[in-house]
Amino acid sequence: MAAKKPFLKVQCVTCKTTNYFAKKTKATAEKKLELKKFCSTCKKHTVHKETKK
Ligand SMILES: [Zn+2]
After folding, report:
1. Which residue among 21, 39, 45, 47 sits deepest, i.e. has the most Cβ atoms within 10 Å of its Cβ?
2. Residue 26's domain spans which residues?
């Protein structure tokens, strides 16, 4: 049986589109992930935050 790898969805706060996935680590589990990433929906760099589920 394959081990279940916990992944976080990283969502654009502007349009709520999930653009990225991040591996759940001790560091990301303890504090909220916040990344400045390019969003293809907004067509610009926006703040992306982790979302549960
Ligand atoms: Zn967006």
Report:
1. 39
2. 7-51
Answer yes or no: is 15 within a domain: yes
Distance from the alpha carbon of residue 18 to the mean position of ligand 1, in angstroms: 8
Q: Ramachandran region of residue 27, left (φ > 0), alpha (ψ -120 to 50) or beta?
A: alpha
The rounded distance, in Å, linking the Cα atoms of 33 and 29 is 8
Higher pLDDT, 53 or 37: 37
Which candidate, 20, 14, 21, places its Cα nearest to that of 43?
14
CA of 27 from ligand 1 middle (Å) equals 25
Residue 13's pLDDT is what? 96
pLDDT tens-place string over residues 2-50: 677 778 889 999 999 999 988 877 766 677 778 999 999 999 999 999 8
